[in-house]
Every structure is written in C-alpha cells, then in structure tokens.
Input
Amino acid sequence: MLNIVIFGAPGSGKGTQSERIVEKYKINHISTGDVLRAEIKNGTELGKTAKGYIDQGQLIPDELMIDILASVFDSFKDSKGVIFDGFPRTIAQAEALKNMLVERGQDVSVMLDLEVPEDELMTRLIKRGKDSGRADDNEETIKKRLTVYHSQTAPLIDWYKGEKKYQHINGLGTMDGIFADICKAVDSI
Ligand code: AMP
Output
C-alpha cells in the first residue's frame, strides 16, 4: 500500500495537492482538519470539544486525534493506500501512526514536506479566510497556528529524516509544477 504523509505549515497547500494525489494514485484521503470541521458542523460532542481548540489555534489532544485517525483508517475497505493530511502534528502522533500501521502490517511510504516561506503562508491564509470564511483563517489565529506549527509540528521533520522517509518539496510555484515534483518523489519510492 502507498501510505503518504503530506506535511507542511498551515497554508502550505497540503489539501490542494492531496486532492490531486488521491485522483492520480487512487488512494484514500484522511484530512483530520476536515473530519473535525464536519463534526463541528454536525454539532457532535467531539465537534464541541474540537471547536474550543481550533478557534484558539491550538492542537486537539493527541489521544483524541489518534483514536479518530484509527477509526477513519479502519473504515476504508480494499484500500490501495492512504494520504494523511494534517496528521501527524506531534511526535506522539507520528509514533502512534507508525504503531498503528505496523499493527496492520504496513508502513509510511514517504513523508512529503511542502516548504513555503512564512510571509507567503500568511498571505495565502488571509486570502483563504476571505474566500472560504474558515473561522480560524484570521490574522490572530493564523499567528497562533504558525507558532504551534514551529514548536510542536516542525520537529517531525527531523523525526522523519531519522526514519528515512523524508522528502522535501518546494511548495512555491504553480500548482502543476508542485504536483509534478510530488509525483516524481512518489514514483521514485
Ligand atoms: P487543518 O485543517 O489541518 O489546518 O486543521 C485545522 C485545525 O484542526 C488545527 O489548527 C487544529 O486545531 C485541528 N487539528 C487538525 N488536525 C490535527 C491533528 N492531527 N492534531 C491536533 N489538532 C489537529
């Protein structure tokens, strides 16, 4: 199975590129942010808990996220692989993902790190907030999310380098150009 972790700061293009990867490689997509937004929309208990964290630009606790991830993963039948978008975001989540896959006789195939400079991330997220009305795409919350990214999520770069799964992708450029680089990386696994 092709198990891809798509990684990067908020606004780096993970969601957009994931859609293309799903289409080309016919794999399933787990976006933990999308799962949480759907729970909020449906007014579930999980959604209520998640909203408090998301509105503050903070991460949902690891134990909760790990349970959600495993249940979505196990809901896929006859899957050719999965793209993990927005997960893992902490070292504990990366370790849990690895264990979850090992228990199912699988592994992460590659971690794609979409790198985009900070000023560009800010511009993209503010624009997205205006276009989509996503509540956490406002300047104050974006700044908090970027701080959380640097302190809790960016250490995963070295973690995946240690696992020999790391692949850098330049996240600046046209969508097609970035996608071509991603395909090159995936096809060389
Ligand atoms: P995203 O759509 O991936 O940018 O996620 C939006 C928000 O959902 C994040 O700012 C977090 O509050 C929460 N979230 C999404 N994925 C995770 C995760 N793997 N761990 C913790 N919180 C998450």
